[in-house]
Amino acid sequence: MAAPAGCDRRLAGVSTARLETFADGVFAIAATLLILNVDTQIGEGTADLGKRLVEIWPSYIAYAVSFVTIGIIWSNHHTVMAQCGRVNRTFLMLNVFLLLTVAFLPFPTRLVAENLRDRSELEPAALAYGATMTVMSVCYLSLWLYAITDRRLLRDDSDRRTVSGITRSYLPGAPTYLTATLVALVSPLASVALFGAIALFYVIDSSFFGDEVIGPVP
Amino acid sequence: MAAPAGCDRRLAGVSTARLETFADGVFAIAATLLILNVDTQIGEGTADLGKRLVEIWPSYIAYAVSFVTIGIIWSNHHTVMAQCGRVNRTFLMLNVFLLLTVAFLPFPTRLVAENLRDRSELEPAALAYGATMTVMSVCYLSLWLYAITDRRLLRDDSDRRTVSGITRSYLPGAPTYLTATLVALVSPLASVALFGAIALFYVIDSSFFGDEVIGPVP
Amino acid sequence: MAAPAGCDRRLAGVSTARLETFADGVFAIAATLLILNVDTQIGEGTADLGKRLVEIWPSYIAYAVSFVTIGIIWSNHHTVMAQCGRVNRTFLMLNVFLLLTVAFLPFPTRLVAENLRDRSELEPAALAYGATMTVMSVCYLSLWLYAITDRRLLRDDSDRRTVSGITRSYLPGAPTYLTATLVALVSPLASVALFGAIALFYVIDSSFFGDEVIGPVP
Amino acid sequence: MAAPAGCDRRLAGVSTARLETFADGVFAIAATLLILNVDTQIGEGTADLGKRLVEIWPSYIAYAVSFVTIGIIWSNHHTVMAQCGRVNRTFLMLNVFLLLTVAFLPFPTRLVAENLRDRSELEPAALAYGATMTVMSVCYLSLWLYAITDRRLLRDDSDRRTVSGITRSYLPGAPTYLTATLVALVSPLASVALFGAIALFYVIDSSFFGDEVIGPVP
Q: Is D1 near chain C, with CB under 8 Å?
C-alpha cells in the first residue's frame, strides 16, 4: 500500500498507535500486578503487623526492581517505536512474544521475593527470574533487528547513527542477563544482587546520560 | 450525520479510537491476567521449588498458547478496524460480546493447565476451552459480517478484494475450533494439542505469509 | 483560556482524550476482573469438574450481565463525550466518582453469583448489587446534567434535539434500578431477574433502535 | 533534535502521548484493583452476609478515599502534562518512580481497611499508608520541579503565572502528608481521619475552585 498524502497518512498511522496502546496496556498491568505479590507476603506471617511490614523487605525491593525494569523496557519500546514508521504482521507477532515475557515477570519476581530471606530455595527462584529476563532481552533484540534489517520498518528520516547507537546499546542485554543468571548456580544471592544492579545501572544510564529531548524543542 | 470536512472528520473519528482503546484494554488485561493462573499452580505443590517449577510445565504452555491466541485476536481486530471507517451502536455491542468471550479465556485456560498432567478431568476442561474459543470465533465472524454487509461500516476506499480476502480467512475459524472441541469427547489430549496447533498455525501464517506492510510506505 | 486555531485546538483536545483513556482503562479492567469471580467459584466445589462447571451457572450469567452492563455504560460514556467539546476539573471529579462505582461492580456481582443457587442470602446480595447500580445511575445522570447545564461543556455544534434526546433516555435509569433494588425486599430472585432484564433491554435497545452511525459517513 | 514543522510536530508528540497512555493505565489499574481489598474482607467473616456487608464499612471508606486520591493524582498529572511540550528520559524515569508509588497504594489501603475496626494494629497500617503518600508527594513534586527548572520541558506558550500557581499548589503536599503520618504515632485514628480529610479537601478544592475550563472554548 503506497503512502497517500495528508489525512490518509494519519489514518494509516493508527496501526502503530494501536500496537503502542496494547503494549502500554500490558506494561502498565504487569507493573501494577506486582503489588499483589507484596499483598500475598504480608498475609502469611503471624507476628504483629509492624514486624511483618519490616520482615517482608525483600518484597519491597523485588517490587521496586521489577517495576523499574518494566518501566525501562517500556521506555525502550518507546525509543524503538519512535524510529519505526510502519509495522507489519511479523513485527506485531514479535511484539506479542516480547509482551508475553513482560507479563510473565510478576511470577518469578514473587518467587525471588518469597525466598530472599530463607535462601534454601533461592537458586531455582533466581534461575527462573534470570531465564525470564534473558528470554525477554532476546525477544527485544529480535524485534529491533527485524525492524532495522534493510531498514524494513524504519521511518524515512530515521538517522543511521541513531539506529546503530540503539543497536549497540541493546546488544549487551541478553549476554548480561544470561551471565547474571548463571551466577545463580554458584551464588543465588550474588545473582539477585546483579539483577538489582543491572536495573539500577539502566536507571542511572537513562537519567544522567540519556537526557536527549524527546518531542519538539522550541 | 453527514461527514463534515477537515477537522470534524478527525473529531468524529474519536469513536473508532475509543472502541480500540477499550478493546485493547480488555485484550491487554485478559492476556496479562493469565499469569495469575501460573501463580496459583506453583503454590499448590509440596515438593521443593525447583521440582515444582518443572512440574507445572502445562501452565507455561497454557499461558503461552492463550497469550498468543489473544495476541492474534488483537492483531485481527486491528485488521478489521483498519477497514472500518465508522461504527454504530450495534457494532459497539457486537464488540462488547466479542470482548466478553476474550475476557473469559483465562478461566478455561486455567482449567486446562490444571488438568493436563493428571488427565482424569481433562475432558470437561478441554470442552470448556474449546466452547469458549468456538463462541469467540462466532462473535468475531458476526462482527465482521455485520460491518461488511452492504459495506455498512467500511471505509469508502476499502478494497473489495481485501475485504473478501479477510472474509475467506475468517470463515474457517469457528468450524475448526468446533471440530477441535468435539475431538475432546474422544481424546481430550488430542483436542488440547489441536488448540495449540491452531495457535501455532496462526502465528506462522501471520509471520511468514501475512507480511503486508501496515502503515505508510516511503 | 480562549480557543486558539489549528494545531492548538488539537493540543487542547488532549484533555478530553486523557479522560477517555483513563475511563476506558477503568471500564476495561472492571469488566475483565469479573472473570476472577468465576475463577473463585469453580475452586470451591468438591464434585468432579464437569459437574462443577454446570453447577456454577449463576457465575456465568452474573459475569455476562455485569460485563454487558459495563459495556453499555462505556458505550454511553462514549455518547456523552461525543457531545462534550471541553472538560473542567469538576467534570473530571464527577467522572472519578462514576468510575468509582463502575470499579465497585465486580464485588456485588460476585455476591449475587455466589448466592443465586442457595438463596438464603440472596437478599443482601441483590440489595448490594442494586444499590451500586442505583448510585452509578445517579453519578451518570449528574455528570450529564452538569455538562449540559447552560451548555457548559457542550460542543458548539452539538444539536439541541440530540442533547435533550440523550437526557430523556438517561432520566429513567436511577428510578428503574432503585425500583428493581427495592423489589429484593419482597423477592430477591425477582430483583436479580430484573437486573438481567434491564441489561437485556439496553442491549436490544442499542442494537435495534440505536443504530445511528457514529463517525463519518461517505 | 530541532522541532520540524507541521506533520512532524504531531509525530514527535507521540512521546508525550505514550507517557500519558502508560501513566493512565497504571492509574486506572491501581484504582480498579482496590476493589480486590473489599473482596478479601467480605470473605473473612462468619456472620450472615447482611451483617458482614455492614461490618466491613471501613473497606468501603478506604476504597473510596484511595480511589478518589488516585483520581486526583491522575487529574493533577493531566495538569502537569498540559504544561509540558516535550519529555526526556530523565522525566520518563521520574514518572516511573511516581507510578511505582501509585501502584503501591492498594497495599497500605488494605492494611488500613483491615485494622480500622479492631484498632490494635492501626498504627503500623497508618504509618505505611502515610509513608506511601508522603513518598508519592515527593516524587510528584520532583517530577514537576524537574520539568520547570530552566523551563526545561515546558511548552513555549506555557504561562509563567500558571506555572508558579501550580508550583504553589503542589508544595504543601509532602509536608501535609508527612504531618498526617506522624500523627499516627500519637493517634492512628486521627491520622487516618486526616488522610480522608486531605482527599476530601482536594475534591472540594478541585470541584469548586478549580473550575477553569480545560480544552477549547467556543
A: no
